[in-house]
Structure formats: C-alpha cells, structure tokens
C-alpha cells in the first residue's frame, strides 16, 4: 500500500499544482517573494453589467479571465479549469491508484519513508518524499519541483502533503496539500501561486476546503479564492456539486458565492449542464450564473438589488 500511496499522492500533487496553469498570467521573470498575499481591494464589490461576467465566471473556474477578472464583458475561457474539476480529477486519480487487489495492503515496517524522483516530459525533476505509518494510517511528506516541465508548463517550488489512510482498505480518508510559493511558466507567461487544499473523503457527500492565491508576475495583481467549501455527491453517471465561500477580485473587491441550485456534471463533460451560482455584492447587487447545457450558460446581473436582473447574456462554455 505504501508504494501505491506514494504514486497516488504524486499524481494528485501534479494535478493540483499544474491545474493552476489555466489561470493565465503576464510575461516576466520569477519574482521570488516569500509568500503570496492578497493585495487588491478588500471591500465588497459592486456587481455591475460591466464586471458581472468576469466576476461570475472566475468564481467557478481558472481561465484567462480568472486571474484578475478584468472589469469588462468576458466569457469563461474554454481552456480554463474549474475548481470542481480540479478536485474531481484529483480524487479519481487517488482512488484509481489505490485500487490494486492483487497487492497486499500492509507493509512490513510500522513506519516507512520513501523518496522518488520523476523526470518531466520536457525537462526538470520532481522529488516526492512520503512517510507512512501502518499502525495509524497517517502519512506526510513533501513534493519539490525543480524546473519540472509537463506539456510545456514549468513549475518550481515545494508543496507539503499530509493525510490518513484506512489501514484495512488502503483508501485515503483525509488529504491536505499546501504551498507558500509555486512559480509557473509557459512560454512568455508567468504566475505565482499559493494554495491550501484539504479533503474529507470518508463522508458522503465528500468535502473539500480550498484556498488559492494567484499573483500576476508582471502586474503584481492578485486573485483570491477564500475558504471555498465544495461538496460532491457521486452518482453513477454524474456528480452533484455545491460551492460556498468568498472570492476576491483585485480590481473590484469581494463577493460571496453560493449555489442555490446544485451543479450537475455528467461523466465525460467538461462543464456542468444544470445548476446556478449566485454572487452577492455591495448594496444588494447580485450576479447569477445559470447552466443551460454542458455547452452554454447565462450570466445575469441585478445592479441595484431590486430583484430584477437588468443584464442578461448567454455564452458558450
């Protein structure tokens, strides 16, 4: 189980960190700050027809508009990666890596530490070190990226890993990944990221708690997903997803996010086909994202909080 665990966590860390590539970013060098903090407007944002698209879209996914959420009409970048998609991909990969009925789920030593180094497909290395205790099921360790390059995206920095396994089944029960500074480069684009993700996988629906801080290297503007709680109920052919938390946009301020109607994401689809997300801003202003299908969604804005959505626009995912 130890070797399968370290493989599972390796896969999970790669997906967690490199999924941030969908954030986009500006051109420039590394920066090297000790830790990313949010430096934008901290007051509640007024949601308007000019910024509603950017705010609502970036509340659901990382994409070109998701980095700073420019105050102009924009739609979800189809190459972006949604927060639920990041979490679902990680969870599936972990489960698949642990399912190996032909192998014993016990290791001989009560505690064992293993280090593995992997080469990137376009250069650099990732080194993961993990210690597992087969008496408690707890594991912890780190993943270090040295110009580690996958599919043209290069990452540097270190992430901490910890969690627990069911010692009888080998299933991961809890999992946490955090990093104070990761740097990503793709072509002339560069961004820095800090993240903290924790899973509670032994409940149904399972729960993920997420915090992301993203900084554009060129402009130094920041974007913050603050204490998102994402719940996932797994059906046979779909996932039902709810989201709640706060999102900070550097130029606009914060909005509070809820899902009045759960999102439904069918297997094989990149985007949900059902559900609504509501953003609440200052003076009662509201923005609503409604899934029309797995290929289209609608953005609506109630600027003055009178209950009437004055702005509505349909977009393709």
Structure characterization notes:
The chain has 317 residues and is mostly beta strands. It contains three helices and 17 strands. The chain has helices at 2-18, 52-60, 83-98; strands at residues 26-27, 61-62, 81-82, 111-119, 125-133, 138-150, 153-165, 172-186, 189-200, 206-216, 222-234, 238-249, 253-266, 274-280, 286-291, 296-302, 311-316. The strands form two sheets. The chain has a 15-stranded antiparallel beta sheet that branches. A hairpin with an 8-residue loop joins strand 16 (296-302) and strand 17 (311-316). The two termini are 40 Å apart.
Summarize the model shown.
The chain has about 325 residues and is mainly β. It is about 15% helix and about 50% strand.
Features:
317 residues, mainly beta, 15-stranded antiparallel sheet, two-stranded antiparallel ribbon, 17 strands
């Amino acid at each position: 189980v130890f070797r399968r665990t370290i493989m599972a966590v390796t896969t999970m860390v790669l997906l967690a960190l490199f999924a941030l590539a969908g954030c986009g970013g500006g051109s420039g060098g590394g920066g090297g700050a000790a830790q990313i903090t949010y430096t934008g407007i901290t007051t509640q944002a007024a949601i308007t027809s000019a910024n509603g698209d950017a705010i609502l879209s970036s509340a659901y996914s990382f994409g070109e508009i998701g980095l700073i959420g420019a105050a102009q009409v924009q739609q979800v970048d189809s190459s972006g990666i949604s927060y639920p998609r990041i979490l679902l991909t990680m969870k599936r990969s972990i489960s698949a890596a642990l399912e190996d009925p032909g192998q014993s789920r016990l290791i001989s030593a009560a505690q064992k530490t293993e280090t593995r180094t992997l080469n990137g497909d376009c250069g650099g290395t990732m080194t993961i070190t993990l210690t597992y205790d087969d008496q408690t099921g707890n594991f912890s360790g780190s993943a270090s990226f040295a110009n580690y390059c996958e599919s043209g995206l290069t990452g540097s920095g270190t992430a901490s890993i910890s969690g627990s396994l069911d010692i009888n089944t080998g299933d991961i029960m809890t999992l946490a990944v955090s990093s104070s500074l990761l740097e990503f480069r793709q072509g002339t684009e560069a961004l820095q990221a800090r993240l903290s993700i924790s899973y509670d996988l032994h409940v149904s629906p399972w729960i993920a708690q997420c915090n992301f801080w993203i900084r554009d290297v060129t402009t130094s503007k920041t974007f913050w997903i603050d204490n998102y709680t994402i719940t996932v109920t797994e059906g046979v052919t779909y996932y039902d997803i709810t989201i709640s938390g706060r999102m900070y946009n550097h130029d606009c301020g914060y909005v509070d996010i809820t899902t009045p109607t759960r999102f439904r994401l069918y297997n094989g689809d990149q985007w949900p086909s059902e559900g609504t997300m509501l953003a609440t801003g200052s003076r009662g202003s509201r923005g609503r994202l409604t899934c029309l299908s797995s290929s289209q969604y609608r953005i609506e804005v109630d600027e003055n909080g009178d209950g009437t959505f004055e702005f509505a626009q349909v977009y393709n995912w």
